[in-house]
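Co-fold these.
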Amino acid sequence: MANLTLEEMIEIQRRMMRIRLFDERASKMVKRGHIPGTVHTSIGQEAQVVGSTFALADGDYMSGNHRSHGHPIGKGSPLGPLMAELVGKATGVCKGKGGSLHLADFAVGSLGESGIVGSSIPIATGAAFSSKVLDNGKVALAFFGDGAANQGVLYESMNLAGTWMLPMIFLCENNQYALSTPAHTVTSGVIADRAAGFGMPGIRVENGQDVLAVYDAVKTAVDRARAGGGPSLVEIVTYRYNEHSEGLRLANDYRNAEERADWLSRDPVVLFRDHLIAQGMTVEQMDQLDADVLAEVDAAVAFSDASPYPELSVAFDDLYTDKETAA
Amino acid sequence: MSVMSYLGAIGAAQREAMDADERVIIMGEDVEANVYGTTGGGKSRSAEGDFTQRYGKNRIRNTPISEEAMVGAAAGAAMTGLRPIVDLSYSSFLYMAMDQFINQVAKNRYMFGGQASMPVVFRSAMFYGLNTGAHHSDRPYPMFMNVPGLKIVAPSNPTDAKGLLRSAVDSDDPVLIFEACILWGTKEEVDENEFWIPLGVARIARPGTDVTVVAISGSVPEALLAAEDLALEGVSVEVIDPRTLVPLDRNAIVRSVVKTGRLVVAEPAHRTCGAAAEISAYVVEEAFDSLKAPIVRVTAPDMQIPFSPSLEKQMYPTRFTIAAAIRRVAGLAPASEQTLLAALHN
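Predicted complex below.
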């Protein structure tokens, strides 16, 4: 059972609420044309995300995927530069070069979100490798979905991490759908069970809406990795409330109403709010937390609004370390 | 100075780089056993200079045959403090890791607004001309020239192989080095002290005034032989070896063409969208008025590499096909059979 202080649990709820309210705002902004392109929200998956990121230490590394905002928020990134990046502003965390699909905040160990599913898994594997060579005690975690669980690169990376005993967590965010395709229709066996083939622990968290259950499972894997015990695969079963991406209007609803209602009845931010109230927090205190986070989101949007778009003169910056090669 | 082979020079550069910086590590298939001769001191594991003995298994690591994980993990390690040299052995194996090369290695610095540093070197050898069949004979450097974010190096001699590798390891951008297997045994006097050859500076391999030949990788020695042959007929050929294709020393090429007015480009890669195509197009854009004759490319045709020696040896630029191209741009009649025979025995 999680050995967390009340302050830490309040911080968990704060980060989950940041994801919820940030992504709700981002969804609206896409539909109003304030955010160009599209975004993939983590609404409904907050416990899975924050339970994982909170189990990491500040200096630890992580890589992620297209459902990208929750990861850096969960790891502690400030919201302003993230929102500015979604809008394409010069003050964005990636200077407006990456956008929603490619958030990265190296200051909190976020090594980048990948628009190609599975593609960032070896990046985290390499970060775990450098930790081992440099002996700096850092752990790396790769987020990937149930869809990416069928990419070959995952198994190449698991084999490498297992062989080299790297301090690494392969974190499968099983939200049960690869866009419209139910995971069970394209996945042979249970994802977590695949760990056995690589001689590493495979843990499946059935109730991924319970943030403490997620935290416990991931913390165990992180502690094991940091102690030199090698990598683990952790699969967390969760559910995304919104469409695969915002603005996507599919002709068929591939998820039935009963299923949706069941998951909505176990909303992770409501469950943990109730838990904190049971721990002695007042309703007023929890309402204040929500209001504070809403103010943070408002401030992030204001920061973005007040920021300039990048000048054309910086378009080639950071293509190479020197300007000459890009010429 | 001491006599080094092309492969020996690479080994020397790797040893220097490992000695110079503890963040430099080597990973790849068969590197611990020094299978290709670039990670050891001699033929035996116990020979002085064996890399596993010298640097320990933490810094030199055999990898599984998993190119995608290997390339991606090297990128992740580079982003977090190491400076890996990845030995991918055959250039044809790079295709297994295309997603990592294109979507991670090449894009991460830019995509993340400069947060990611990518000091990683990927070495591979082009086994063309050695009857290894279509899966081992590729010369794929032009397709990587089409991926912004990568630097591309193609050394043609031991000195360049050593000096360019040192600069590649010191670069904070990802560098792909394409080594030509047919050059491995080439020997010359090489400075055994540390030296660096900057990326993006061409070498005038032979000065001349009448025709410019830009030659790449294994086509450089063939172009030098062709230049010797033409010198007997009074044609002064300047041979330029770009050495790095990204960044490309475009100014050196244009300067030479402005002087000679005639250009032949020779390379072992395919014809369509090759380095020769890019160089030719650039010269037309920037030095059209200097050209006295159409540019001629000498390349491999757009086809698979056949196995049989009698078929494969026709595929790449040779002394004779390059000489024929020089004659064409110089307005000379094709060589007679006697001239060709004389050149053969020269």
